[in-house]
């Protein structure tokens, strides 16, 4: 085991020591992130530029065109009770869309049988401009703070020396992030290998807000439920398919649409009152957690049908570009720290990968008329409608230029108050609880496949990592930890003798919030040593 005192200090590219590499700067624990997150911006924008021209993540994928038909209701009530978004409120309204399905870690030519989350990105071409809903098939993620995203992907991608995905690198990262246990339990089960794209769920993963005409907001999570049903593969089943076909899911979707067997999903939303929720044992803004459906049911909103294949894979699927910040009126951001970080990263990636004028490409361009004062840039080939006077590309103007849209009579205004600093969530007991709940909810064959996969991984890990992972799994569920230990030949007593992770609360405990003193700087705290604030 490496002596911690011998480790070199992590710095920014400017050489500044990094005192907290776990947390964005935000207004309070659950407040919004701030634009002056220099450390995060430098880290994430460099990460966005690590590969060219292939996507850094979600490189392998396929896409199709279709439409969304709104029911006009949410949970049997008029959708206008929750939102003023026209795409959701007008019953029978059909909105054209484009969907891109993908794997996450593998390269563009990697097999679609890979054990990996599946991307599920939808671009709605609404009358009020584009709405992008970018998520995955499992409703959760590995981390809850966007500043950790480059580290996570680096650990999951191939080793920079061997160019192979190594189990020990994956679990070396996971062992330090108990919030990842929930997602790992899903991914290492059959749910980590969907049978194909037509038979998998989709989700926003992040928490958004719905806003109605009265300026009232509720928290919301979106999900896609396949009407074809859900089908997953065990590792042996996936290996058999991969021996004959590396692009089986792309082939399946293309051929189904060509023969007129159009896949369909029901679009659902979960809603929750906006604000604090001390009655819950998890933070609803934490994207490593699911909202329990018995408390927050999936409410049908509409249906999606995919009925047309692309004419050219590169022009449409490969150059399609999505961003979590692409919203329409009536749908707004929450303070989910992954959502806040992704909103910068996704669009920044597209400007770099495809170019600053990626929105001029037909697959990305809105169907609604675009009128901006933005000009030029690499590969521009047209100019947005500038209004009645083409000489005026600025605003405001008295000479016939563009003008701002009228404000709604009532709008949503979030009240924000808190100490600016780097925070980690105090809701930590559910890091183990939801993973254990998931393990117990699996059918026997799903649990067996999960254990087999986990055992194989533990055998490929150094003892210190395998012991800590067994410790984690046992605290999720005793049977879970015991079966992994027995299968991998790990000493369970030795694993359980390990102390809790340094600086982390013991499983089942809730982290104490930081204490502030007037004019003092916190030293040696988990949240970092760069926060100052006044006590009440």
UniProtKB/TrEMBL annotation:
Question: Which CDD domains has this protein been placed in?
Answer: catalase_clade_1
Extract the InterPro entries matched here.
Catalase, Catalase_AS, Catalase_clade1/3, Catalase_core, Catalase_immune_responsive, Catalase_sf
Region called Disordered, residue ranges: 1-30, 387-408, 496-536
Q: What is an example of a Pfam family matching this protein? A: Catalase-rel
Q: Does NAD show up as a keyword for this record?
A: no
The UniProt record lists the EC number as: 1.11.1.6
Residue ranges with Polar residues bias = 1-25
Record keyword Heme present:
yes
Query: Would you say which domain of life the source belongs to?
Result: Bacteria
Q: Which UniProt keywords apply?
A: Heme, Hydrogen peroxide, Iron, Metal-binding, Oxidoreductase, Peroxidase
Q: Which intervals hold domain Catalase core?
A: 11-403
Q: Which cofactor does it need?
A: heme
User: Which PANTHER family does the record cross-reference, listed alphabetically?
Assistant: CATALASE, CATALASE-2
Function description = Decomposes hydrogen peroxide into water and oxygen; serves to protect cells from the toxic effects of hydrogen peroxide.
Can you tell me which family this protein belongs to?
Belongs to the catalase family.
- Kindly provide the name given to this protein in its UniProt entry: Catalase
Specify the taxonomic lineage: Bacteria, Pseudomonadati, Pseudomonadota, Alphaproteobacteria, Acetobacterales
């Amino acid at each position: 085991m490496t002596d911690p005192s011998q480790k070199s200090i992590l710095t920014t590219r400017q050489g500044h020591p990094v005192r907290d590499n776990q947390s964005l700067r935000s207004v309070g624990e659950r407040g919004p992130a701030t634009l002056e997150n220099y450390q995060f911006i430098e880290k994430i924008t460099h990460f966005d530029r690590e590969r060219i021209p292939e996507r850094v993540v979600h490189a392998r994928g396929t896409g199709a065109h279709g439409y969304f038909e709104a029911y006009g209701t949410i949970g049997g009530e008029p959708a206008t009770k929750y939102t003023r978004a026209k795409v959701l409120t007008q019953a029978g309204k059909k909105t054209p869309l484009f969907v891109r399905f993908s794997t996450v870690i593998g390269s563009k030519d990697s097999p679609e049988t890979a054990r990996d989350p599946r991307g599920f990105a939808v671009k709605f071409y609404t009358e009020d401009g584009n709405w992008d809903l970018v998520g995955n098939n499992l409703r959760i993620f590995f981390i809850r703070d966007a500043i950790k995203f480059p580290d996570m992907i680096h650990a999951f991608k191939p080793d920079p020396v061997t160019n192979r995905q190594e189990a020990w690198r994956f679990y070396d990262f996971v062992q330090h992030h108990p919030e990842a246990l929930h997602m790992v339990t899903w991914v290492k089960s059959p749910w980590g290998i969907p049978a194909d794209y037509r038979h998998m769920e989709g989700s926003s993963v992040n928490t958004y807000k719905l806003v109605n005409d009265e300026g009232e907001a509720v928290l919301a999570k979106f999900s896609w439920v396949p009407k074809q049903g859900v089908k997953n593969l065990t590792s042996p089943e996936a290996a058999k398919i991969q021996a004959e076909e590396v692009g089986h899911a792309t082939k399946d979707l293309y051929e189904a649409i060509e023969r007129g067997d159009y896949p369909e999903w029901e679009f659902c939303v979960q809603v929750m009152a906006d604000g604090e929720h001390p009655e819950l044992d998890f933070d609803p803004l934490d994207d490593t957690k699911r909202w329990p459906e018995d408390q927050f049911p999936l409410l049908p909103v509409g249906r999606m049908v995919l009925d047309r294949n692309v004419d050219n894979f590169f022009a449409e699927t490969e150059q399609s570009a999505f961003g979590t910040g692409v919203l329409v009126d009536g749908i707004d951001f929450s303070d989910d720290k992954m959502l806040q970080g992704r909103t910068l990263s996704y669009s920044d990636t597209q400007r770099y990968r495809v170019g600053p004028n990626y929105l001029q490409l037909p697959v990305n361009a809105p169907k609604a008329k675009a009128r901006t004062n933005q000009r030029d840039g690499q590969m521009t080939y047209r100019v947005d409608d500038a209004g009645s006077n083409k000489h005026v590309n600025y605003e405001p103007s008295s000479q016939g230029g563009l003008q701002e849209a009228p404000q709604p009579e009532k709008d949503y205004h979030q009240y924000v108050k808190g100490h600016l600093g780097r925070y980690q969530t105090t809701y930590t007991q559910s890091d183990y609880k939801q993973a254990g709940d998931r393990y117990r909810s699996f059918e026997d064959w799903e649990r067996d496949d999960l254990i087999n996969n986990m055992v194989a991984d533990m055998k490929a890990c150094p003892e210190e990592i395998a012991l800590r992972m067994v410790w984690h799994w046992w605290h999720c569920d005793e049977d879970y930890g015991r079966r992994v230990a027995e299968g991998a030949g790990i000493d369970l007593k030795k694993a359980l003798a390990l102390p809790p992770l340094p600086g982390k609360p013991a499983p089942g405990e809730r982290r104490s919030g930081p204490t502030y003193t007037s004019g003092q700087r916190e030293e040696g705290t988990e949240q970092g040593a760069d926060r100052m604030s006044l006590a009440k």
